[in-house]
Specification:
By secondary structure, the protein is α+β, with helices and mostly antiparallel strands. Helix content is about 15%, strand content about 25%. The longest helix has 18 residues.
């Protein structure tokens, strides 16, 4: 069911609930205590055998219901939240994203290159689109990139006559998007 339709149906049910039960009897704003019962706000006290006042045990019914609800949620039977394409507001920003972090030895070639470690040297038009020539600054090697190529920390989104656009994965849990757009221009303006 659509989340908006579910919310609207829930609100409608809550609004119509008093009408479904008929007209309820009005309740007094401050009910009068029964004869012999303590007044509101006063706890009934008892005296022990030694004459000390014993306070009554608190009603644990509400606490038991809360704990029961928490156990249902933890076991997977209770409520859950489906964030869709949005960040889950109930997960800590400090815990980090669920995806695995970039670790381990980097592979050879284009899949092992970081976007920040490459320089754009040229762009050519071919029958299948544009191809970009890059130089890896740490390896002193030249590579040819095309749209869709995967790098170690992102991928190539588009290549046009003057620039290459990359989508770089961001490892910042406070970022709104898990990626950022990086543009490398053939003639960067200083």
């Amino acid at each position: 069911m659509n989340p908006r339709a579910f919310t609207a149906a829930s609100l409608l049910a809550l609004l119509l609930m008093p009408l479904a039960g008929g007209l309820a009897q009005p309740q007094p704003a401050h009910p009068q205590p029964a004869a012999g019962a303590p007044a509101q706000g006063q706890a009934q006290q008892q005296q022990g055998q030694d004459g000390n006042v014993i306070s009554p045990s608190p009603d644990t019914g509400d606490i038991d219901e809360i704990l029961q609800g928490e156990e249902e949620v933890l076991s997977g039977n209770g409520f859950s939240y489906d964030p869709g394409n949005r960040r889950d507001p109930f997960k800590s920003l400090l815990a980090g994203p669920e995806r695995t972090e970039i670790r381990g030895p980097r592979p050879e070639g284009i899949p092992g290159l970081l976007i920040d470690e490459i320089d754009l040297k040229g762009i050519w038009r071919t029958g299948k689109g544009f191809v970009a020539q890059i130089v890896a600054t740490n390896q002193k090697k030249t590579f040819l990139l095309k749209e869709g190529d995967q790098l170690y920390d992102g991928d190539v989104v588009s290549i046009n006559r003057a620039e290459v656009v990359f989508k770089q994965i961001v490892q910042d849990p406070t970022a709104l998007k898990p990626f950022r757009e990086v543009v490398k221009s053939l003639n960067p303006s200083s």
